[in-house]
Amino acid sequence: VQLVESGGGLVQPGGSLRLSCAASGFTFSNYHIVWARQVRGKGLEWVSAILSDGRTYYQDSVKGRFTISRDNDKNTVFLQILSLKPEDTALYLCGADVLTPFRMHDMDYWGKGTLVTVSS
User: Fold this and answer.
1) pLDDT by position in tens, the chain (length 120)
2) Rounded-to-integer distance, Cα 65 and Cα 25, Å
3) 99-117 burial by CB neighbour count: b if 16+ within 10 A, else e?
4) Radius of gyration of the CA atoms of the chain, in A
């Protein structure tokens, strides 16, 4: 089982990124997927989720700037981020769970993350 995040990097404020989470080793279409982020020295913060049926959810602070989507044919979930802010700087991780994407402490699988740095 693997979840591999990619697409992070150094971006100027106001810029955009598209993060990817590629899954393998399990029946991806049956799983709910979450994006979370972690600032160095702080806890994991839930950001967005997409259910197996395609319904999407967002943390209030990212609504309107973050868009989550999934491609079940490619076993991949995407997180499009617009109008990046310095406070978006974090390690972004994706997780998968067959029951719910809202209990981060109990996710079935996690990736190792991709680092997003927003700085001028």
Assistant:
1) 999 999 999 999 999 999 999 999 999 999 999 999 999 989 999 999 999 999 999 999 999 999 999 999 999 999 999 999 999 999 999 999 999 989 988 999 999 999 999 999
2) 31
3) eebeebeebebbbebbebe
4) 13
- Give the model's pLDDT for residue 90: 98
User: Could you identify the residue written with the tokens 């049926």?
Assistant: 53
Distance CA 106, CA 119 (A): 33
Rounded CA-CA distance 75/82 in Å is 23
Q: Contact at 8 Å (CB) between 9 and 117? A: yes
Considering only CA atoms, which of 97, 93, 99 is closest in space to residue 109? 97
CA separation for the pair 75, 92 (Å, rounded): 18
Residues 6 or more apart whose Cβ sits within 8 Å of residue 100: 32
